[in-house]
Amino acid sequence: MTQSTFKSRRPHPMPRFHRWRTNALQAPFFLLWTALCGSCSLFFSLFEKSGRIQHRIARVWAKGSLFFAGGNLTVRGAERLRQHPVAVYAANHTSYMDTPVIFSTLPFQFRILAKRELWTMPFIGWHLNRSGQIPIDTENSHTTLSSLGAGVKALRAGMPLFVFPEGSRTPDGVLQPFLAGAAFLAIRAQVPLVPIALKGVYDLLPMHTRHFYPCDVTLQVGEPIATTGMTIRQADELTARLRAAIEAMLAE
What contacts 70, CB < 8 A, 6 or more positions away? Predict the structure, then answer.
């Protein structure tokens, strides 16, 4: 199957049982769990500035969130996640549940580049700010460069980064065009760029839906792409290699 012939396993319309289960059980538990973990994270952020405790709480939240959503996670190529002490990790963006999948899997503390709009949301924005995540404004080139600069600084300080190169979730499950931010970060910091393919997460909770569809999801880690000796002029070339690697994993 190629990305151009992608077909979701999610039934349409959603069966009444799945809608009832989401509304009566899964969504309430998911929201309560998120509020509980988020409150704990905010509390500990008042005393602990390194982010280690917050990251541990985020991992607990992520695993619980997948459980409540009905996502059965399989990880392939996990050994590549520890191949380099610092790297830029980049994955396709398919669902609200991509973030729990990522936090459940990456076995180290990292920072995420996320849309600046999230920082304006009550509670979510507070948590993102207190946990040291990096906001990025894709509509303002000056602000984008400033945000990327903060990302490069974090990488050079030894903190891995995670990026969704598409910038936003896919509306139909098909891989969207990639922005060059991930490649820019990896080249500027001279660290590897690691492709990650998320499969099945779109079926779990795609864009513009509010009902979970319990299913198998897979996170597959590709071979790291070295950037040593590359220059910013090669950012588009590296972005194309990244997208091709993720597309190939999705097509397997």
Answer: 26, 204, 212, 213, 214, 215
Residues of the chain with pLDDT under 70: 1-5, 119, 121-126, 138-146
- Domains of the chain plus CATH, in order, are 70-251 (3.40.1130.10)
State pTM to two decimals: 0.91
Beta bridge partners of 73: 217
Each residue's pLDDT tens digit, 164-197 = 999 889 999 999 999 999 999 999 999 999 999 9
Rounded Cα gap, residues 238 and 228, in angstroms: 12
Sheet holding 134-136: strands in order across? 71-76, 215-221, 193-199, 88-91, 161-163, 111-115, 134-136
Q: Dihedral of CA 92/93/97/102: which sign?
A: positive
**What is d(CA 33, CA 224) in angstroms, rounded to the nearest whole number?**
34
Measured between alpha carbons, how far is 200 from 154 in angstroms, rounded to an integer?
A: 31
Tens of pLDDT, residues 52-61: 888 899 999 9
In this structure, which amino acid lies at residue 161?
Answer: L
